Task: inverse folding
């Protein structure tokens, strides 16, 4: 799927248990609220959250697109997936994807790509 930076600029929300918001600005800055930083499957609970500011990147390496949000000194990858007529950003919180949940962010503003 071919995605450009302008496709990602705007406000995003992951509902359900995640309850997180993410704002991606044109200049590459990002801010988030209630960002899930950890989850434990055995307890079925979120183990950490964070509000903050950082940056985001969308790069192509060897023909593959990579989208990351930088939180402090940590780059967190998110998958960009096709949805029903819209994009979905998928975050897998924590260090172990087998012991986590998927936070599915959908656009909540009326931003239209150029």
Result:
């Amino acid at each position: 799927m071919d995605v450009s930076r302008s496709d990602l600029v705007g406000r995003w929300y992951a509902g359900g248990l995640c309850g997180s918001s993410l704002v991606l600005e044109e200049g590459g800055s990002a801010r988030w609220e209630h960002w899930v930083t950890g989850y434990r499957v055995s307890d079925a609970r979120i183990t950490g959250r964070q509000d903050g500011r950082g940056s985001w990147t969308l790069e192509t390496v060897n023909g593959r697109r990579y989208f990351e949000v930088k939180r402090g000194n940590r780059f967190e990858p998110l998958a960009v997936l096709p949805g029903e007529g819209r994009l979905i950003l998928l975050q897998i919180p924590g260090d172990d994807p087998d012991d986590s949940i998927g936070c599915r962010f959908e656009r909540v503003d009326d931003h239209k790509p150029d």
